[in-house]
Specification:
about 525 residues; mainly alpha; Ribosomal Protein S8, Chain: A, domain 1; GMP Synthetase, Chain A, domain 3; three-stranded antiparallel beta sheet; three-stranded mixed beta sheet; 8 strands
């Protein structure tokens, strides 16, 4: 019985505790649900607040952006208005200036019109005075004819003779006057240009000959050069095209030829054969072929170096090769390649002083004597040959004309031809550049003196300073200072027309009176 009661009480307690737990759980669920609802309401409230704040910030930002844009527009508007106002002020100033110019032009037109009327009236009055003067002169002439008992033709002849004498004297005076003015304005400038070009470029001058010498170690080597029955020397001369001279001069063999390139190739070949010691026809042919190739390479290199030194580029390889061949060509003992480079520099400097193209002038000067590299192969003078070659290889017309006409009088309108002719004359006339034979020198002196003696009243003429100066003595009793000036000018013109000479010739006419008495 007790056990049943205990079981029932235990079961009741269990039921009561289970019910308490159930109701506790329900209560806890309600509390959690209420907290969740409160939290959700709080989140919604905060979200609304954030949205409201974001909306307000966006509105504020939009208002600020709108205000900034409005300020920028206002600023641009004010700048545009200021620029427009400035342009309007400038236009107003220009309009005022134009109005003033128009007023001045109207005033000038009125002044010109007034001056024109005055000139017309003066011309009319002068015409009337000229007519009256002619009538009076005719009447006076008739009176003079009657008083002198001369006819009109006789009086005219006397007057014309006297007038001719007076004109000669006046002409001499005018020549002196204008020569002095011209000399002050032109001579100084021309001389400064030439001297500046010559002084800025100083070149060394070398003399070449038609023979070359080859040293040999001993006289036994001469026999080996000649060979058995002259076999070696004949083969050498046939292969190289030069003459080999072997005489009694000890230790020397002479190689002679007018073609400097061929002579230099033969000299190098003979030098190598002597150093090697093996001298026979096949070896001669082999060594000469090698030296000839080396000389050809040297020629091409000399042409390229000349172009680089003269700062001339873009030439055809054939033209460069011909230019290099000038290294072995001489004219009156002056090396033609160095002469061409010098002419290029002088022509370029003169062109700069005259305001012309310096590079084109250098090109004309460098190529003006290129025909000399082929004049022994083609017919004609080197100017024509050079012009044809340059034209064939597409050189400019100025370069072709300079090569063709640099030895003639400057009849062409191209200024570069005249510049090259002047530079060529300066280079040739430079002291020590060229040598002149005695016969040619004496003949030139005689021609200068002969031309001067052809003029009237000239008593003596002397060519001095190696033909660079002429001194002419005239009769002091038959001439005046003015007629002496005219004689000087006539002698200069005759020398210019009848002689070709490098540089310039100074002519001095001397008229003096000497009185000598002897005291006893």
């Amino acid at each position: 019985m007790n056990s049943i009661v205990t079981a029932i009480s235990t079961l009741g307690a269990a039921l009561l505790s289970g019910g308490g737990v159930f109701f506790g759980l329900q209560y806890m669920n309600k509390i959690r649900q209420k907290d969740a609802e409160d939290e959700a309401n709080d989140v919604v409230r905060r979200a609304k607040l954030d949205a409201e704040n974001f909306r307000r910030e966006a509105e504020i930002e939009l208002k600020e952006k709108g205000m900034r844009q409005k300020e920028e527009l206002e600023s641009e508007k004010r700048a545009a208005r200021a620029e427009q106002n400035e342009k309007e002020r400038q236009l107003d100033k220009r309009q005022d200036a134009l109005d003033q110019q128009a007023d001045e032009l109207r005033k000038q037109e009125k002044a010109v019109e007034s001056t024109r009327r005055e000139l017309s009236e003066k011309i009319a009055r002068q015409t009337e005075l000229n007519a009256e003067l002619e009538q009076k002169i005719a009447a006076q002439d008739q009176v003079l004819y009657d008083l002198a008992n001369l006819s009109k033709e006789e009086a005219k002849e006397i007057v014309l003779k006297k007038l001719d004498q007076e004109l000669i004297e006046e002409q001499g005076a005018l020549i002196l006057k204008h020569e002095k003015k011209t000399a002050e304005r032109c001579e100084e400038q021309a001389r400064e240009t030439l001297l500046l070009a010559l002084q800025r470029y100083a070149a060394a001058h070398t003399a070449e000959s038609t023979t070359s010498t080859v040293d040999i170690p001993n006289d036994d080597m001469k026999g080996r050069v000649i060979g058995r029955e002259g076999r070696n020397i004949r083969a050498f001369e046939k292969i190289t095209g030069v003459d080999v001279i072997i005489d009694d001069t000890p230790g020397v063999v002479i190689v002679s030829a007018f073609d400097a390139i061929r002579r230099e190739s033969a000299r190098l070949a003979l030098t190598r054969l002597i150093a090697d010691g093996r001298i026979h026809p096949s070896r001669i042919e082999e060594v000469y072929a090698q030296t000839h190739r080396e000389i050809q390479a040297f020629v091409q290199r000399a042409g390229v170096e000349a172009c680089q030194e003269a700062d001339v580029h873009g030439l055809n390889d054939r033209v460069v090769n011909l230019l290099g061949r000038l290294y072995f060509r001489t004219s009156y003992s002056q090396n033609v390649l160095r002469h061409s480079i010098e002419v290029a520099f002088l022509a370029g400097m003169m062109a700069v002083e005259m305001g012309l193209d310096e590079k084109l002038a250098r090109r004309c000067g460098l190529l003006h004597d290129v025909g000399k590299a082929a004049d022994h192969e083609l017919e004609g003078g080197h100017p024509k040959i050079g012009a044809n070659i340059l034209k064939r290889y597409g050189e400019p017309a100025e370069v072709v004309q300079a090569a063709l006409n640099h030895h003639d009088d400057p009849r062409v309108a191209d200024p570069y031809t005249t510049i090259v002719a002047a530079a060529d004359a300066c280079s040739a006339a430079r002291p020590g550049a060229r040598r002149e034979t005695l016969e040619h020198y004496v003949k030139r002196m005689e021609e200068l003196e002969k031309i001067a003696m052809e003029f009237p009243y000239v008593e003596q003429a002397y060519a001095v300073q190696a033909g660079r100066e002429m001194r002419v003595l005239v009769n002091s009793l038959l001439t005046t200072d003015e007629s002496a000036a005219k004689t000087c000018r006539d002698v200069v013109q005759a020398l210019t027309e009848r002689l070709q000479f490098p540089g310039e010739i100074k002519v001095t006419v001397i008229r003096e009176t000497r009185t000598t008495e002897v005291a006893k």
